[in-house]
C-alpha cells in the first residue's frame, strides 16, 4: 500500500459523495408530497416523526463505524473468516436492536413527545407514521453494519447503488401512495418501510460472497467471547464519543435560542453549511477508514502513513474549495434556504464563520476517519471529552463578550480542539502499525 495511488482514494470517495447527494432529495420529496394535501399538520407530523426515529436509529450509528474499522483490519491481516464473522455479528446486532425498539416503541414515543410536545393533531399523525416505520428498524440498523462492511472493502459503488435504489424506490412509492392512492402520512411511512426492507434485501445480495462458504454459520467464531468483547468496547467508545459530539451541537442550538427567534433561525440556516461540508468530506473520511484499517491489519506503517496523507490531502482540497464556494456564493445559498429578509440579513452577518469552518474543521473530520479505521476508539472518546471541556470553556468566556458570534467561535474552537488532540495521539497510532 506504500504506493497507494490517488485514483484509489478518489474511487472510494466519489460514490459516497454522490450517494450523499440523494439524501436531501428524499427529504424534500417526503415534505413535498404531504404538502400537496393542503394542510400544515401532515407536514409537521412527517417532520417530527422522522426526526424522532432518526434520533433513535442514530444511537446505533456506532455499528457502521465500528464495523468498518474492524473489517478493514481483518482484511489487511488476511483473516477472511473474521471478515465474514463481523458481517454476521453486525446483522445480529441490527436484528436485536431493531426488535428492542419495536418492543419499546410505546414508551419511546411517549418520552419523545414529552420532550418535544406537539399539537394533538400533529402528535396523532406522527404516532401513526412512526407505528408503521418502526417495523423496519431491524432493516435500518442492520444496514449500518452492511454499509460499514462494504466501505471496509472499498465497495463504495455498491453503497451508492444501494442508496440510489432505496431512495429512488422511496420517492416512487411516496408519489404513488400519497398522491395516487391518497394514503396521506401513512403512505409516506409505508413507502419508507418498504424501501428499508428492500434495501436490506439488496444489501444482503451485495454481500452474497460472505454466504458462499460455511463461515457465516461458524457459530464458534461469530460468538467468540474475546472478539465480542473487543467489538463491544470499540462500539461503546464510539457511542460515547458520538453522544458528546451531539451534546455540543444540541447545546449550540439551545444557547442560540436565547438570542431570539431571528438569530436562532439564522443559526439553523448556517448549520446547513456544516452539513454540506460533512457530506462532501464523508467520502474521503471513509476512504481513510478503509485504507488505514487495511494498512494497520497488514502491519504496514508506510502504507498507513501514505493512506493518511493522501486521504487528508484530498479532504483539505475539498475544504479549500468549500470555503471558496461559501465566500463567493454563501449569500445566494442563504437566500435559497430562507425568504425572510431579517433572517437573510442576520445569517449574512455570520457568513465569515462558515467560510472558516471547513478549513478549521478538516483536521477533526479527517482524523475521525483515521482513528475509526485504526479502531483507536478509546483515544477518540477521550479526546472528544477534552474537546467538549474546551468548548464549554470557550462558551463561558466568549458568549458573554461576543454574543452569537462568541457561540460560533466556541463551536469552531471545538473543531480545532478535536483535530489538535487527535493529531497529538497520531504518533502512537502509527507506532502500533509495526
Structural overview:
There is one protein chain. This protein has 434 residues and is an all-alpha fold. It has two domains: 1-223, no CATH class; 235-434, no CATH class. Helix content is 86%, strand content 0%. The protein is built from 18 helices and no strands. It has helices at residues 6-20, 22-35, 40-58, 62-76, 80-103, 105-115, 120-133, 137-152, 156-180, 184-206, 219-222, 225-257, 261-297, 301-337, 341-349, 351-373, 377-402, 404-431. Helix 9 (156-180) runs antiparallel to helix 10. The longest helix has 37 residues, at 261-297. The model has no long low-confidence stretch (mean pLDDT 91).
Radius of gyration: 22 Å
Name the helicity range.
over 70%
Which spans have pLDDT < 50 for at least 5 consecutive residues? none
Number of E strands? 0
Mean pLDDT figure:
91
Biggest sheet record: none
Count of helical stretches: 18
Compute the number of structural domains: 2
Q: What structural class do helix, strand and pairing data support? A: mainly alpha
Overall 3D shape: globular
End-to-end distance, in Å?
14 Å
* Proportion of residues in extended strands: under 5%
Order of helices and strands: HHHHHHHHHHHHHHHHHH
Amino acid at each position: 500500500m506504500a504506493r497507494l495511488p490517488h485514483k484509489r482514494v478518489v474511487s472510494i470517495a466519489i460514490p459516497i459523495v454522490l450517494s450523499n447527494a440523494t439524501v436531501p432529495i428524499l427529504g424534500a420529496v417526503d415534505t413535498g408530497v404531504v404538502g400537496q394535501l393542503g394542510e400544515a399538520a401532515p407536514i409537521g407530523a412527517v417532520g417530527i416523526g422522522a426526526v424522532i426515529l432518526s434520533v433513535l436509529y442514530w444511537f446505533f450509528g456506532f455499528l457502521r463505524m465500528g464495523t468498518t474499522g474492524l473489517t478493514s483490519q481483518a482484511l489487511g491481516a488476511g483473516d477472511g473468516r473474521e471478515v465474514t464473522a463481523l458481517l454476521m455479528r453486525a446483522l445480529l446486532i441490527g436484528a436485536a436492536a431493531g426488535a428492542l425498539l419495536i418492543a419499546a416503541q410505546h414508551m419511546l414515543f411517549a418520552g419523545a413527545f414529552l420532550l418535544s410536545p406537539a399539537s394533538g393533531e400533529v402528535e396523532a399523525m406522527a404516532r401513526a407514521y412512526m407505528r408503521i416505520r418502526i417495523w423496519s428498524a431491524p432493516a435500518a440498523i442492520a444496514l449500518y453494519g452492511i454499509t460499514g462492511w462494504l466501505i471496509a472493502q472499498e465497495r463504495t459503488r455498491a453503497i451508492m447503488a444501494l442508496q440510489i435504489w432505496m431512495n429512488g424506490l422511496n420517492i416512487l412509492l411516496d408519489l404513488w401512495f400519497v398522491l395516487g392512492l391518497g394514503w396521506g402520512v401513512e403512505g409516506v411511512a409505508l413507502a419508507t418501510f418498504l424501501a428499508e426492507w428492500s434495501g436490506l434485501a439488496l444489501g444482503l445480495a451485495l454481500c452474497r460472497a460472505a454466504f458462499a462458504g460455511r463461515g457465516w454459520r461458524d457459530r464458534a467464531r461469530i460468538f467468540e467471547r474475546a472478539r465480542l468483547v473487543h467489538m463491544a468496547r470499540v462500539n461503546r467508545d464510539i457511542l460515547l464519543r458520538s453522544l458528546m459530539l451531539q451534546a455540543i451541537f444540541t447545546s449550540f442550538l439551545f444557547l442560540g435560542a436565547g438570542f431570539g427567534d431571528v438569530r436562532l433561525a439564522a443559526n439553523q440556516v448556517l448549520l446547513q453549511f456544516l452539513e454540506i461540508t460533512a457530506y462532501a468530506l464523508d467520502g474521503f473520511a471513509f476512504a481513510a477508514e478503509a485504507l488505514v484499517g487495511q494498512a494497520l491489519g497488514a502491519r504496514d506503517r508506510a502504507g498507513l502513513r501514505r493512506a493518511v496523507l493522501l486521504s487528508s490531502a484530498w479532504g483539505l482540497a475539498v475544504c479549500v474549495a468549500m470555503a471558496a464556494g461559501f465566500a463567493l456564493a454563501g449569500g445566494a445559498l442563504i437566500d435559497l434556504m430562507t425568504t425572510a429578509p431579517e433572517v437573510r440579513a442576520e445569517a449574512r452577518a455570520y457568513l465569515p464563520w462558515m467560510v472558516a469552518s471547513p478549513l478549521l474543521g478538516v483536521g477533526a473530520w479527517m482524523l475521525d476517519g483515521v482513528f475509526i479505521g485504526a479502531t483507536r476508539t478509546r483515544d477518540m472518546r477521550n479526546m472528544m471529552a477534552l474537546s467538549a471541556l474546551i468548548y464549554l470553556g470557550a462558551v463561558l468566556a466568549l458568549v458573554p463578550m461576543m454574543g452569537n458570534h462568541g457561540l460560533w467561535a466556541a463551536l469552531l474552537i471545538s473543531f480545532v480542539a478535536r483535530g489538535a488532540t487527535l493529531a497529538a495521539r497520531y504518533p502512537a497510532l502509527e507506532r502500533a502499525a509495526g
